[in-house]
Amino acid sequence: MTSAKPLPAPHRTLLVVLATIPSFDCLVNQLNNAFQISFGPLSLLQVLRGDVVVVFMVVTAWSLLRDRSGVRRIPLPAVAALLLIGMAITKEFVLTGALSMQVLAPTGR
After folding, report:
1. Phi/psi at 42 (nearest 5 deg)?
2. 44 with 38: CB under 8 angstroms?
3. Angle, CA 20 vertex, CA 43 and CA 101 arms, to 5°
4. Model confidence over 29-58: pLDDT tens digits?
5. β-strand 38-39 against 42-43: which pairing, if any?
6. Whole-structure pTM value
7. At what angle do helices 76-96 and 101-108 cross, to 10 degrees?
8. Which class for 12: exposed (0-12), middle (13-18), buried (19 or more C-beta within 10 A)?
9. First-to-last CA distance in the chain?
10. Which of 7, 34, 57, 79 has the smallest C-beta neighbourhood within 10 Å, fewest atoms?
């Protein structure tokens, strides 16, 4: 009988961390609903989700800069979605002169 070897995963730790994000978000959502913690005009959930998005973008940029062959694997719809979000945020900034969380939250979703 042969033993099955696990498939190699080049970034196993990164995959595990990314897989825990939904559980972490659920836990923070429950804490936010129970205790209504806020940091100025932002809730705990908004602050932590913003941090997760920034960390995710930094890790993605770092991995793409380290391995340039991965750039061709980014699908065109993903690039188009980022450009549309950028255009919506730029439009809001040009029209109002500021960026408010009431506009950024729905745009990011």
Report:
1. -105, 145
2. yes
3. 25
4. 899 899 998 888 888 888 888 888 788 778
5. antiparallel
6. 0.53
7. 170
8. exposed
9. 50
10. 7
